Amino acid sequence: MYLTRFRLNAARPGARKLIASSQALHAAVMSSFPDLLPSAAGRPRVLWRLDRNAAAELLLYVVSPGRPDLTHLVEQAGWPAAAASGTPGWQTYGYAPFLDRLDKGGIWNFRLTANPVHSVRVRDGQPTKRTAHVTTQHQIEWLLGRQEVGGFRIQEKPQERRRTERGDLHQLVVRDQRSLEFRKTGSTGPVTIKTVTYDGRLEVTDADALRKVLTEGLGKAKAYGCGLMTLAPIST
Amino acid sequence: MSVLTLQLAGPLQSWGASARFARRTTENAPTKSGVLGLLAAARGLTRDADAELAELATLRFGVRIDQPGTRVRDFQTAHDLDTDESMPLSERFYLADAVFVAAVAGADPMLATLYQALRRPAYLPYLGRRSCPPARPVELAVHPGGDLVGVLRAEPWRAADWYRRRRARETDVELTLLTEVPAPGSTPNATLRDQPLSFDPRHRRYALRSVHTSTVTVPNPQARARQTVPPHDPTSLLDLA
């Protein structure tokens, strides 16, 4: 497994096109694997996420079974001249040693951009429809509901740091709610996806299950930059 | 000595210190003559009561600009009711949406009477011009034994909620203080002809008064910290492949 980081050059038109369209960015990410043919059935899961830390700090993270080649991204949306002087313009890290070291009881900071949805039946007799959670409280509950299976537990806040009596139990912030809307060839209506970013602190309860989450993703809309969870040491 | 504080807030205010003839300008802050006129009106003094006015004029005056407001220009036309002759066209300036805290310092019994008078005014108070009614009660409090600058510095920020929210990025806001007595760190940078000698409608007379400008910092209760993205670097423990 590999974890790759690529910084987008926000001043370039190519980068703006990718930032604006999750579809375009997905296509760009998927085409960075030379061994992966578009027609390949049952192809391995590639996860990606775009972190918008500041107006000019846009970091694309990709977790993939194979090693990516992001030359085309550097050319369209990176710094090709800087990359020409020896460095490839992106960083690929080996992910497997880190994943193997994950242990039960370890405490990590995590970040996850996800598409929290549930299925509701609007009228009796009709099939259920996938519907986005729109309130922060529901979005938190969505993530909490995946702790058991995911092999992690979100840490609770000490009593004195809670700002409200209820609803502020966990070391978790939900931010950056975004609505994606685009048309897909072959579908009648627009595709609408709501994404939120979670930042928080978790404890590993089942290392194998968490490894599965980290490499295969959590929730829906994985093709559109959702579901990739990354861990960082709590000192940073 | 004690200090009486007033809040001057209204949709429109107009405080002329040098307004003459057809161009009726306004200062950026209430004038001493305007505020003393308001107090005299609350007491029920007549326009020609020069002796009582002389007593009022001994009060020391200071004002804090809590919300500067915006300047509005009005172009006024009027016709005589009987002859239908047009009056001279005049330009009138106002401050819209401004809030000030004014303070007067003087002898205790005089300020106590003035405070009572403001609660039951003989003539209704207005903010510099009769068309500018106050939007809030004018009187705030009497501070016994206080000094003018200290009381103005200690007063909480009186700006409107929407204005405080607009400056939510600032945890502390800096307000301008215009006082008659020197304040620490102030500059005596101006004189204003607004020390009233007589409000007699036949011949109003004013003397020059010095104005010391300084600033005061007050907390903003509506301040909110900017939301920042938490740091997150998943690569710090990984090795380049």
UniProtKB/TrEMBL annotation, chain A:
Name of one Pfam family that matches: CRISPR_assoc
Domain of life, per lineage: Bacteria
InterPro entries with a match to the protein in the record: CRISPR-assoc_prot_Cse3
Protein name, entry field: CRISPR system Cascade subunit CasE
NCBIfam families on file: casE_Cse3
TrEMBL record, chain B:
InterPro entries: CRISPR-assoc_prot_Cas5 (IPR021124), CRISPR-assoc_prot_Cas5_N (IPR013422), CRISPR-assoc_prot_CasD (IPR010147)
The keyword Iron belongs to this UniProt entry's keyword annotation: no
NCBIfam families tied to this protein: casD_Cas5e, CRISPR_cas5
Entry keyword set: Antiviral defense
Species of the source: Kitasatospora kifunensis
Region of interest (Disordered), residue spans: 212-241
UniProt protein name: CRISPR system Cascade subunit CasD
Molecular function GO terms recorded: RNA binding
Pfam family, one: Cas_Cas5d
GO biological process, any: maintenance of CRISPR repeat elements
